[in-house]
Amino acid sequence: MTYRRAAIPAVAGGLLLTALLWWAGASVHALQLPGASNLVDGETVGQLRGWLLPWAYDPPGAAQFGNAMAGGDAPGPDGASYAALEATGQQIRFGAVLVFFSLGALFLLRRLPPERGRTLAAVLAVWAWGLVAGTLAVTVSAPWSIASGGRGSFRFLPRLAGVIASGREVLVVTALVAAVATVLVARLTAKGAGPVPQAVVPTRAARLATTVGTAVVAFAVVVVSQQSVAAALQSVSPSVGVLSEPGDLLRQWLLFGAWSGPGSAPFGAWLLDRGADVLLLVVVWWALRRLPMLLTRATVPAMALGGVCATVLGLLAGELLRVVRSAVELPGDPLRLLSGFAEGVPAALTWGLVAGVAAAVTLRVVTGRAQVAGAAPDDPEPANPSDGPEPANP
Question: Please, what is the end-to-end C-alpha distance for the chain in angstroms?
Answer without folding.
Answer: 22
